[in-house]
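Incident log, structure service

09:12 report received: a user says their structure output differs between two submissions of the same chain.
09:20 pulled the input from the user's history:
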Amino acid sequence: MAPETHDSSFDDEQLLEALDRYVETVHSGHSRLEGDLVEKHPELSGLIGCVDELDRLAPQTARRTTPATDVSTGERVNFGKYELISELGRGGMGVVYQARQIDLDRVVALKMILSSEFASPEEIRRFYSEAQAAGSLQYSHIVGIHEVGEFNGQHYYAMDYVEGESLSGRLRQSAFDSDTAADMLLPVVRAVSYLHSEGILHRDLKPSNILLDGEDRPYVTDFGLAKVVENNDSRTRTGTIVGTPGYMAPEQAAGRTSDISVRSDVFSLGAILYEMLTGRAPFQKETPLDTLVEVLEGEPTLPSRITRTVPRELELICLRCLEKDPDRRYESADALAEDLEHFLKRESIAARPSGVVARVRRWARREPALASRSGGFLTAAGIVQARYLLDPMASDIDLHLRVMGVFAAWAVSSWVFQRCLNRGWEVMRFGWVFADAMWLSALLLMADGPIGPLLIGYPLLIAAAGMFFRVRLVAFMTCCCLSSFIIVSHIRDEPSALPHYPLIFACGLAVLGYIVGYQVYRVRVLSRYFEARR
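09:34 re-ran on a clean worker, output below:
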């Protein structure tokens, strides 16, 4: 049976506490304490690399800001030649304040490093890289940088203050109609095209990085992950994941930094358009890790299935941006902008419906559980039917029809379970795996002749359950398969099988369930840890 607990002296609670101490020492910059902790708990050595990557993706709300910039009391705080008025927001690395520049008597947005004087050299480097990337840009829909500097050990830069809210804040209220979404996104796409013409990739385009002024004019901001294309700086190494999980391109999610290009930003623009049309991100799961897996392997629900008023043309534009293969996306932000303009003018667009093969591939990624089962049904039923057609006289027609009927019923029940999952009824996963074990057992009981090779179906079901990254689901499937196998073995009671063979096979199923469940558990323990740090 798959494990629900980690059978080790180093139990879950100790593991989470040690991981928490490790991350805190990393944030504080105490490298010696970090080394001592790893030496004291060698069990952490295999998790450190994964922790370092996931820590960047998790919201870091607990990092310390200096008392000198604390405006939580509601009083204005002097910071050099600036007067801090209120906190506007904070992200993984920085905090932004509304401030008044005293000498020029103007309101600006002031961004500082979230960890203040405890910032690591890498954080400071990234902070100044962001300021340099944005400071060289002059475009009407890009937030401009006025000044960069340091005061009392706190690094900062001043930028345009956009009075309004972010696009993410607006989307929390409701989605947009199709024309409004296309019209509002068009200036953003043009701004991104300007970035690309200047040799800069944004790499973190998302609704929270688009600000809306009082007249709903959009402005692109937050260049913390921007990269100058001509810069051969190798500090963003291969394997490093940069971006926000729900909006990053698959090549970003996979850490293939050498493959990140202008088409990666096009993917993010498509994700933004998707959310503007439907009110939800195209890839959104319970944890950042689950979301990354969905970006790499899944397909979003068609926008028109969520919002029926989405025109087919705009849906095609959105889906072309969200292609997994960069070569199938728009080749540039300019090309995307042209199609958006054509849509607004009710002219023909360049995006075209995918072919049959591409549509099947998308469906398989969108509904992998149903697709994998469908492939299995078609293969097995096809073999049975071919065998009957080749030698109909040697086959029992009644038995053949019953077997094909079970395949058909299994396929229909799988379709029903998939529809239930699409409606968000997660508990139906357990009903689905139970039904799988029962249908397989029914076929084995009906089979004519020895069933030895057909028993491979039980291990396949256990392995398939691991695809959902749920330890309890793997455990439940293992129990279902074990119970079903015992029942089938007892009813069939094949005389050719030695008595201890079924016992060996049952033990093998239990071991397989443990292995699959343990692998899922290893991933989940990190996922739960970072979820707890939100």
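09:41 both user submissions now match this output. Likely a transient worker issue. Closing.
09:42 reviewer note: The chain has four domains: 12-57, 67-160, 165-357, 361-532. The chain has a mean pLDDT of 82.
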